[in-house]
Design a protein that fits this description.
The protein has about 230 residues and is of the alpha+beta class. It contains four helices and 14 strands. About 35% of the residues are buried.
């Protein structure tokens, strides 16, 4: 297996399940004008969106681009129905932190250069260049997903709308659905996302709380390999 293959396998096992990749792939307005390749080398032709749906995609992209700092609680439900919760912290560009509650206690940190993961149950520590992970798409200073993502569907209801998208380069199999809730003041709130893998197994991440802003300590986005006791 190549380095990139191992990288994506590990990320699919941990990072993708946390829903971070979903966030990275879903914030896509320019993508409606692009096309992507399917697993057989053909082209994924994006649908023709009406003016209202184009406006929703553009609004979602502007919202995500404007995010700088935010924090809250999340609940993850995997395809077997197992639920886990934890805390998340965002500081764009470049930084995000996911803390899973016990008994999992998995910790995922992007520090602006690398994505680092610590699993205390397995006593395993892994790190990868941020630029070689899907997180770089979402955490970059300028979100540019038009080259990598195809928006395939936009659906709306009384409370907001959902964007469905696929990875244009097929580095991540499956797809995502990102749910936005319309705020009373006319703005948006990112409420949840669902990742579906190549086997049609869905992992849902619901943001229990989403609080914009936050005076984070300097070491919140620092994760060093813990010293193992001999």
């Amino acid at each position: 297996m190549t380095f990139k293959g191992k990288l994506m396998t590990d990320l699919n096992r941990r990072l993708l399940l946390s829903g971070l990749t979903a966030a990275a792939l879903a914030s896509t307005a320019p993508a409606l004008a692009q096309s992507g390749k399917n697993q057989f080398g053909g082209l994924i032709t994006p649908p023709s969106f009406n003016a209202a749906d184009k406006g929703r995609i553009e609004k979602a992209t502007a919202y995500l681009q404007a995010l700088t700092t935010a924090q809250g609680r999340f609940e993850q439900t995997d395809y077997r129905g197992r639920k886990t919760q934890g805390n998340w912290f965002l500081s764009r560009p470049g930084k995000i932190r996911f803390e899973y509650d016990a008994p999992y206690a998995l910790l995922i940190v992007a520090d602006g250069q690398k994505v680092k993961m610590w699993d205390p149950r397995l006593k395993s520590f892994d790190e990868y260049p941020l630029g070689e992970t899907p997180l770089s798409l979402f955490l970059s200073r300028q979100i540019r997903l038009d080259q990598n993502v195809v928006v395939t569907q936009v659906t709306s209801n009384a409370s907001g709308f959902t964007l469905k998208a696929r990875d244009r380069r097929k580095q991540v199999e499956g797809g995502i659905a990102l749910v936005f809730e319309q705020a009373v003041n006319g703005g948006l709130t990112l409420r949840e996302w669902t990742v579906t893998d190549a086997q049609s197994r869905a992992t849902r991440v619901h943001l229990i709380s989403f609080n914009r802003g936050g005076g984070f300590k300097g070491d919140l986005f620092v994760l060093n390999k813990p010293q193992q006791k001999k």
